[in-house]
Design a protein that fits this description.
By secondary structure, this protein is an all-alpha fold. The protein has helices spanning about 15-40, 45-65, 75-100, 105-110, 115-125, 130-155, 160-170, 170-185, 190-215, 220-225, 225-260, 260-280, 285-305.
């Protein structure tokens, strides 16, 4: 494992970061919605995820080659990609397997929770300074996410549904770890698009054995032979590729805590879309929760502007 490195970002947030935040969070919501549609069409979800990760990784690697970003020592790049790939593969698999049981809306909400966890860990490891306004923003956004989660639990009858909610609720802890890993071990001089490509390719390689073991090799045929699943797979590959171009750039310019706000954006976008397009029901208290999530994100951005650059 490479040595701990200084963070590659500054805490001063300009216009680029909010734009990237909105784009990345919205694309995250899109990928979750597409995964729910794939589940509704009986897709083998681990195979679906493997193909999407691999396809998006290939696209980004080709872009990295074209842009001249493929350079650097391959050993630290490969180790970084393997670690980042594991942190990407596990929560993605949890999301794709649980989405048919808890709904795209709740999976979107689960990605709103890493904010506080990431912030607390970043403070612990000296990757962020404590700023009162920023901490208040994190707390307000988290309160909105918790309100949505409690509303979802109240709507369940028990049984296996609760188990899948718990699986989906475990996603934020792994995502938070991944947020910190990607910043803490960012290889010196590496370009975001190359790291995104390596992460996705290695995440696909890690997911594939589980797809074969749990769903069988023949399940792949369902993806290739069902026109709707072919379409959904292609759309999700494109959405993943665009998402992670913005995702790694956002991580580079703004750091892991700011990045973790994409979950709040995904929750705000994905939940109403799931209601309108998929017929899912809104959790109790959604309007208030949405206000808290958006308000908390706004406070955190204001705090980032006031904090100014932080030396490594």
């Amino acid at each position: 494992m490479p040595p701990l490195s200084a963070k590659p970002y500054a805490t001063s947030i300009d216009l680029e970061a909010p734009v990237l935040l909105a784009a990345t969070g919205s694309l995250l919501a899109v990928t979750i919605i597409i995964s729910r549609l794939a589940a509704d069409h009986a897709a083998p979800m681990l195979w679906f995820l493997t193909v999407v990760l691999g396809g998006a990784g290939i696209l980004l690697f080709l872009l990295a080659v074209h842009s001249g970003a493929v350079r650097g020592a391959w050993r630290p790049l490969a180790l970084y990609g393997l670690g980042a790939g594991a942190f990407q593969a596990l929560p993605s698999a949890m999301a794709y397997l649980s989405v048919a049981h808890v709904g795209a809306g709740y999976v979107s909400l689960a990605f709103a929770f890493p904010l506080l966890i990431t912030y607390a860990l970043a403070l612990m490891f000296g990757m962020e300074r404590f700023v009162r306004l920023g901490a208040l923003g994190v707390a307000v956004a988290l309160a909105g996410g918790l309100l949505l989660a409690f509303g979802k639990f109240d709507g369940l009858d028990g049984g296996s549904g609760v188990g899948w909610v718990l699986v989906a609720s475990g996603i934020p802890f792994i995502v938070a770890g991944g947020n910190l890993f990607r910043t803490r071990f960012w290889p010196s001089g590496a370009q975001p698009i190359l790291l995104a490509a390596l992460m996705l390719l290695l995440a696909a390689a890690l997911t594939a054995p589980f797809a074969v073991g749990l769903e069988g090799g023949a399940a792949w045929n369902r993806l290739a032979s069902t026109p709707m699943l072919v379409l959904l797979t292609g759309l999700n590959i494109a959405a993943f590729a665009l998402q992670f171009i913005a995702y790694f750039r956002l991580q580079y310019v703004a750091g892991p805590v700011y990045l973790s706000q994409i979950g709040s954006v995904a929750a705000a976008v994905g939940t109403p879309v799931a209601v309108l397009l998929l017929g899912e029901s809104l959790p109790d208290g959604f309007a208030l929760a949405l206000i808290l999530v958006v308000g908390g994100a706004a406070l955190f951005q204001i705090a980032g502007r006031k904090a100014g650059p932080q030396s490594s």
